[in-house]
TrEMBL record:
One of its GO terms (biological process) is lysine biosynthetic process via diaminopimelate. Keywords: Pyridoxal phosphate. SUPFAM superfamilies: Alanine racemase C-terminal domain-like, PLP-binding barrel. Belongs to the Orn/Lys/Arg decarboxylase class-II family. It comes from Sinosporangium album. Gene3D superfamilies: Alanine racemase (3.20.20.10), Lyase, Ornithine Decarboxylase, Chain A, domain 1 (2.40.37.10). This is Diaminopimelate decarboxylase.
Length: 380
């Protein structure tokens, strides 16, 4: 039994399931390996993947900065990690957000209209222009570029921004930003990087943020993104004097979290076996949004059983026909729950209680609370 499973059982005995259990040492080791593989390339963490303060504190020791996509995320990072370097991106920045963004390390400009509003404020800022290149994007799970989307600008939009920036000094053009797709392997991302770098060089800028989107496999959790090949590839593409930066979210934190719960009921309906567990997709919406089976941590094998939550909707399914033996009262753990899980879920649908949040690892000595302290500074 590993430390996370041990914690899940401890929580079960205390009546504290469902819970998210985070492995802080595992996260620290993973982030350190990514950092090492990237060499000279700067590493930012995309906070929207999981803003849990304990995770941010661990990541702060490995990353060069944090990418935020809202005023809320900016205030959160400033509270949890005062002084951390931040880049502010995201479509639809309000004037209040733009003004706050101007005070960060980099503003990722999403449109000429947004840049006009920033210039009209008369504040100083360092900007990257977010470009959506018309390049083929095959095999992505989500595409933010490679055609008409609301993310960033086409090259004509970028040209318009470059003209707007000419002849003034307050807002400085630092380079380009591109986050074109998510769910790509190292080879595909390197292909995109090559296109983005060629574009940036044409524009005459030397700072290039290549975005996130590194693939993870929910079907095969052991199939990790090849950070070493990616780092080596970027080192080859990079020219002297250029600053390259990446901003992954999912591939950094997804592995460090589990959603642990217990079986309430097991039943057979028209021959098919179902296990109903406490909680469900209102805590971990990931399997519903991505249409996958959330991987179950191995336990005694048995007849295939479909694991569902407590919601009154057929969409509340966590995993279909998993070959494990389950009985009421058993603890079930779902892996790969460290990113886009609790924080993207519809917590209050049906008004069930929120899960507990528990942290395994030397980073905290093991703590537990009933909310992920989203509004609290925990410090470390
Ligand atoms: C969501 C997002 C990321 C992180 O994407 P992952 O797929 O979680 O790595 C990075 N940059 C931008 C601009 C994003 O919107």
């Amino acid at each position: 039994m590993d430390a996370m499973t041990a914690r899940a059982h401890e929580l079960a005995r205390g009546g504290r399931l469902p819970a998210f259990v985070y492995d802080l040492d595992g996260l620290a080791a993973h982030a350190a390996a990514v950092r090492l593989a990237l060499g000279e390339v700067e590493l930012y963490y995309a906070v929207k993947a999981n803003p849990d303060p304990e995770l941010l504190a661990v990541l702060a020791r490995q990353v060069d900065g944090f990418e935020v996509s809202s005023g809320g995320e900016l205030a959160h990072v400033a509270r949890v990690l005062p002084g951390a370097r931040v880049a502010f991106g995201g479509p639809g920045k309000t004037d209040v957000e733009l003004r706050a963004a101007a005070g960060t390390h980099r503003v990722h400009v999403e449109s000429p209209g947004e840049l006009r509003r920033l210039l009209a404020m008369g504040v100083a800022a360092d900007v990257l222009l977010r470009v959506n290149l018309d390049v083929p994007i095959a095999g992505a799970s989500l595409a933010m570029g490679g055609g008409a989307t609301p993310f960033g600008m086409d090259p004509a939009g970028v040209d318009e921004c470059v003209s707007l920036l000419a002849g003034q000094e307050g807002v400085r053009l630092r380079g380009v930003h591109a986050h074109l797709a998510s769910g790509l392997d190292a080879d595909d991302l390197l292909g995109l990087a090559e296109a983005v770098l060629a574009y940036a060089r044409g524009l005459g800028v030397t700072e290039i943020n290549l975005g996130g989107g590194m693939a993870v496999s929910y079907a095969d959790p052991a199939d990790l993104f090849d950070w070493v090949a990616y780092g080596e590839g970027l080192a080859k593409l990079r020219r002297r004097g250029e600053t390259l930066r990446v901003e992954p979210g999912r591939a950094l934190t997804v592995y460090c979290g589990r959603y642990a719960t217990r079986v309430i009921d097991v039943k057979r309906v028209y021959g098919e076996l179902f296990a109903v567990v406490a909680g469900g997709t209102h805590h971990i919406r990931t399997p519903a949004t991505k249409g996958h089976d959330q991987p179950v941590v191995p336990s005694a094998s048995g007849e295939p059983v479909t694991i569902v939550g407590q919601l009154c909707t057929p969409k509340d399914q966590l995993a279909a026909r998993v070959p494990i033996a389950l009985a009421p009262g058993d603890v079930v753990e779902f892996a790969m729950a460290g990113a886009y899980a609790w924080n993207i879920s519809h917590h209050d649908f049906l008004m069930h209680p929120h899960p507990a949040f528990s942290y395994v690892g030397s980073s905290t000595g093991g703590s537990c609370r009933s909310e992920p302290a989203s509004g609290l500074a925990t410090g470390t």
